[in-house]
Amino acid sequence: MRKHDINNVETRQVAIPAMFDNISGRYDSINHFLSFGIDRLWRRKFVSLIKADNSGFIVDVATGTAEIPLLIANCNCSIVAVDPAEHMLEIAAAKIASANRNNIKLLEAPAESIPLESDIADIVSVSFGLRNFNDPTKGLSELYRITKKGGRCLILEFNLPKNRIVRSLYVFYLTGVLPVIGGLFSGNISAYRYLHNSIVSFARQYRVPQELKKAGFSHVHQVNMTLGVVSIYIAEKPV
Fold it and tell me: What's the Rg (C-alpha) of the chain?
């Protein structure tokens, strides 16, 4: 993916889903390998916060292959998993069928235009997908729209460590090492170059707590993990 594609909303609407479709077959296994399996711990922590309510209607946006819905599906809840990438959802459907989870429904749609009613979700979640929204600001507004009053929005996303030495080493690993490894395993080095460069670009340019507040959410707080490599953002829709 060329650099000018990253900031062009119209191009992203086609390019991002196509990119994820292209790497969908090995996406989960490569992510686990590149993170040394730590991504599983991040997701489990994220899911523990989602499951604190243990019931209700949950919408997982940019769901990919439905990793998060499958982790929370044993609660007393109904889940809609939303993603714009057709092949990612095909893999998600196979995983859901294999796990025999009939409380997860799949919906192909971008985060900026989710065909659900307003004020419908008790919880809206996004894991490692916010930076890949076509328009993050519009996407957060859409998350706010579908969240019930008194409902919560939880976002799990990569961040940059505050410690300068750790941050420098992390950025080098992200931009110099991971794209090569991911490209070799997936056969698509440009996709992994975009994915890992986007972590750095997004973290430097986008302040998630402030943007959540601009979208209308309140009581926003941030939980950092693994030296600040990832963060969980939790917000509420005012009653």
Answer: 17
